């Protein structure tokens, strides 16, 4: 699982590092898959298993009628078509494409946020603002503390 939050520097060439805990989750593949979020100015990503599950979910949703073929194609274009496999070296260092840095307003640092089977990459200041918003939102939400098993 992708767990925890880590902020890493970005150098002048656009290089940053995958947090070591995330590298442990990815395992021997030595790569992450990242794409610009359609939901805001941040990046989303995960390992190979997430990409495969996204593709399967799209097919399943077309099969059960909850997505039309046109909607499925739009999601494939925006998720799978925009995603990049980003390989990293033994220290986790990789180049974050300029278009991705621009989308998320990443200049000198990137905050990696673990979300279980996936992660997000944020501008550190934007993430702090989001975290404050999430803290307020969770105050009015029943907490899930390991009582409910994920489906």
UniProtKB/TrEMBL annotation:
GO terms for biological process: negative regulation of DNA-templated transcription initiation. Coiled coil: none annotated. HAMAP family: MraZ. It is found in: Cytoplasm, Nucleoid. The lineage of its organism: Bacteria, Pseudomonadati, Pseudomonadota, Alphaproteobacteria, Maricaulales. InterPro entries: MraZ, MraZ_C, MraZ_dom, MraZ_N, MraZ_sf, SpoVT-AbrB_dom, SpoVT-AbrB_sf. The gene is mraZ. It comes from Algimonas arctica. The keyword Ion transport does not apply. One of its GO terms (molecular function) is DNA-binding transcription factor activity. This is Transcriptional regulator MraZ. One of its GO terms (cellular component) is nucleoid. Forms oligomers.
């Amino acid at each position: 699982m992708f767990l925890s939050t880590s902020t890493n520097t970005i150098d002048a060439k656009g290089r940053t590092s995958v947090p070591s805990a995330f590298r442990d989750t990815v395992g021997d593949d030595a790569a992450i898959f990242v794409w610009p979020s359609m939901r805001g100015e941040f990046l989303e990503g995960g390992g190979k298993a997430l990409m495969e599950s996204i593709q399967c979910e799209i097919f399943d949703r077309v099969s059960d009628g909850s997505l039309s073929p046109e909607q499925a194609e739009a999601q494939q274009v925006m998720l799978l078509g925009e995603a990049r496999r980003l390989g990293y070296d033994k220290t986790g260092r990789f180049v974050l494409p300029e278009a991705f840095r621009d989308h998320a307003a990443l200049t000198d640092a990137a905050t990696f946020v673990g979300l279980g089977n996936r992660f997000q990459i944020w501008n550190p200041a934007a993430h702090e603002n989001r975290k404050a918003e999430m803290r307020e939102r969770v105050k009015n939400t029943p907490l899930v503390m390991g009582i409910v098993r994920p489906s």
